[in-house]
Amino acid sequence: MSNYDGNVDFNYEDIDLDNVNQSQLPNNVPFDDSETQDVGGLYNAQVEVNENVEVNVSCTKKSRGPNIIHWGEDGVRERIKWDKFGAPLWPRKKCAQFSNFIGSLAADGGFYPINISDWRHLKSESHKRAWERVKGTIDWADPHTASRRSAIKSYVFKRLQDRWKHHKSQLKQKYWLPNQGKPERFNCNLELVDQIQWKEFVQYLDEEDTQTKAAINVSNRSQRIMHHSTGTRTFPAVVHEWQVENGVEEQPDRWEIFKLTHSKKGCKDQYVDDASTKAVMEYEHAEEERKKLNIEITPQVREDIYAEVLGVEKRNIVRGLGAGVKWRDVPYIHTEKRAVSKTVEALQAKFEEQRLEAARLRSEAEREKVEAAKREERIRSELAEREKKMVEEMEKFKRDQMRIMEDNLKMVEQRAVLRMGQWMKEAGFSGIDTASQAFVEQITQATSTQPQSNIPVIPTPSMQHGYRPEMPRTLTN
Q1: Among the listed residues 14, 32, 8, the one whose alpha carbon sits nearest the alpha carbon of residue 22
Q2: Would you list the DSSP string of 78-120?
Q3: In angstroms, rounded to a whole number, what is the distance separating the alpha carbons of residues 104 and 39?
Q4: Which of 80, 86, 200, 204 could form a disulfide with 155 if both were Cys (CB 3.0 to 4.6 A apart)?
């Protein structure tokens, strides 16, 4: 079987798609058709094959043939409502027509040949031509549609990948499995299938490695015991119809969507299989147990119970919300912990620990800086207060000393006056009242105007106060 050469690798960056492929999926993981069954309507019901059952090709029911595509007939550009992830919502008939159109496009070997083993190996030119075909059928004049152009593009390629895988699976089950090991397996009378592509596809299916992977996929597929009841409608379309019917604008959470998409038609409390019924019972029991413990049933708690009952999400795929939804779009989601994820998680935990430690050190440094600034301000304030107090004390001390000096000076002056009076009396001066106030004031004034000296100054009394004796003249011969 021809796979691809070095010049046909498809690069999603060329058409600005967000994770259109599932490159992280291992080859032994089966495709999980979680939304539609045979959207293109190209085949009979799937033939179950196992070791204990022989397939009777002659008894297969006659097919009604491929659906007639009504989407975009006669060049009409269709207008429908889309959700934020690019999935069609309303009206229901147009949404079904769009799904049929995507299925037929994926089954067209001119766009997506079946002799390519991996979606990632398809030519980018095929994707570009397919998108131009889809884009030409949509009315982009509608502002609502135009605003979701990128999301619609991403959704379309996810659905094309889904339908292309489904198309190859149906061809294998109808034309290869019944004739495995026989020359007739190279004959495929379906007009949509290119015979050269079919022969190369058969050669690929005959390879031992391919059959080993197929056996693993069959085993994994057989473990699926839970099914939905939405038919060709997408999960977002079912939710939208429920919102319209009940006049509710807020979207229900994942558990309510699970019950909507797994209940029987017209029976709200009855579910399509035992596995779905058991899951509902387990969820309700877990919710009641939490209520008994006085635990508030918040959206986070509901997600916890969802993961407890249905398991964690894997491979960046979110169950129950339709194509295009990623882990980052669902709050409180529980995801798988792979070996690489655990390593990354350990590194992230270590980095987070270091980040928190660095933040703590920065916080302590900032706190120390603030406290140092406060201490510095407090010291400055205390120093200023002490300086002010010291200046006031010095001023007070100076005033006290001046007062003491003045008092002492007055005392010295009084004593000096008294002593001067005594000297004058001893010297024989009379007629001077040394105790009179006028005399004291005169002496005080004289001492205050004369320069200070260690020698006491004895003023000469005025002659008006008494007689001044004269020295006796020496008698001459």
Answers
A1: 32
A2: B--EE-TTS-EEE-HHHHHHHHHHHHHHHT-TTTS-TT-S-GG
A3: 9
A4: 86
Task: Please state, as a whole number, how many other Cβ atoms lie within 10 Å of the Cβ of residue 325.
Answer: 23
Cis preceding-peptide flag for 461 (omega within 30 of 0): no
What is the CB neighbour count within 10 angstroms for residue 135? 14
Say whether pTM exceeds 0.70.
Answer: no
Long-range contacts of 278-284 (CB under 8 A, 24+ apart): 279/226, 279/309, 279/310, 282/309, 283/255, 283/309
User: CB–CB of 67/304 below 8 Å?
Assistant: no
Using CA atoms, how far apart are residues 174 and 47, in angstroms rounded to an integer? 7
Buried b (16+ CB within 10 A) or exposed e, 179-195: beeeeebeebebebbbe
Rounded to an integer, what distance in angstroms lies between the CA atom of residue 305 and that of residue 301? 6
Residue whose entry in the numeric block shows the structure tokens 């995801």: 335
Among 34, 48, 2, 28, smallest CA distance to 214 is for 28
CA distance 211 to 209: 5
HSE toward the beta carbon, residue 446, CA cutoff 13 A: 14
Query: What is the Cα–Cα distance from 48 to 56, expressed in whole angstroms?
Result: 11
- DSSP element (H, E) containing 269: strand 267-271
Residue type, 115: N
User: Strand, helix or coil at 240?
Assistant: helix
Measured CA to CA, the distance from residue 40 to residue 166 in angstroms comes to 10
Q: How far apart are CA 457 and CA 460, in angstroms?
A: 9
pLDDT tens-digit profile, the chain (477 residues):
443 333 333 333 344 444 434 344 334 433 333 333 333 333 333 333 333 333 343 444 555 566 788 999 888 999 999 998 999 998 889 998 999 999 999 999 999 999 999 999 999 999 999 999 999 999 999 999 999 999 999 999 999 999 999 999 999 999 999 999 899 999 888 888 899 999 999 999 999 999 999 999 888 888 888 888 888 788 889 999 889 988 988 889 999 999 999 998 878 789 999 999 999 999 999 999 999 999 999 999 999 999 999 999 888 888 888 888 888 888 888 888 765 556 777 778 888 888 888 998 998 999 999 999 999 999 999 999 999 999 999 999 999 999 999 888 888 888 887 887 778 777 777 655 655 566 666 666 665 554 554 555 455 555 454 545 555 555 444
Backbone angles phi, psi at 286, to 5 degrees: -65, -35
